[in-house]
Specification:
With about 240 residues, the chain is of the alpha/beta class. It has 10 helices and 10 strands.
Amino acid sequence: MVALLEGGGYADQVTVRATQVLPAPRSVDLIDAAALPEAVCTAWDNLVTVGGLRAGEWVLLHGGSGGVGTAAIQIAKALGARVATTAGGRERAAQCADLGADLAIDYREQDFVELVREASGGSGADVVLDVVGAAYLSDNVRALARGGRLVVIGLQRGRRGELDLGALMTKRATVAGTTLRSRPAEEKAAVVAAVREHVWPMVDDGRVRPVVHTQLPLAEAQRAHELLESGEVFGKVLLVP
């Protein structure tokens, strides 16, 4: 079994509500399967439930090389969407392309707004999933198509930004901000149930898989954090008791 925890996952044993437990996919190694619940629950809920992503639409995913990003690329492709993603450095951008992204952008050297507009025939992204926060707010709005949806799930580069409401109104666009950890138990149960119904079949048939950069012993948690902070990780780092 695998589960969406409330927190406190650095442990040999945990308690979790039954409504937040999922059967471990038979097609995936049990330890690697630990990389799935939080990443796919976050990706599915924000892409589909909040963002309303549909087949044929363009989605721009920031942080495509992270745990949520690698899951979101695969889920969006499985839904039939066109995927643009940003990542730090050419190598990680190339890894995102290998994972299925139609357009992989090195944000250090390239302008994601112009590239997304060009790839989408000038219309822009129907959905933007953002982990960066304030630093990307204005550019994300510029990158949106008419009727586009910006979903902010992270604040890596700031929590306060300036929003051009005129641009938002002209595009008839929306901005939503969400978190998963602080939600009530019944909402988490609904997310897990949706993942079991819609995403687990994608895992079973290989369209979605856990992306694990490395496994480390639980006792080396500090080393795992140092690795994450190095900016070299692609996917998840797992701590193994």
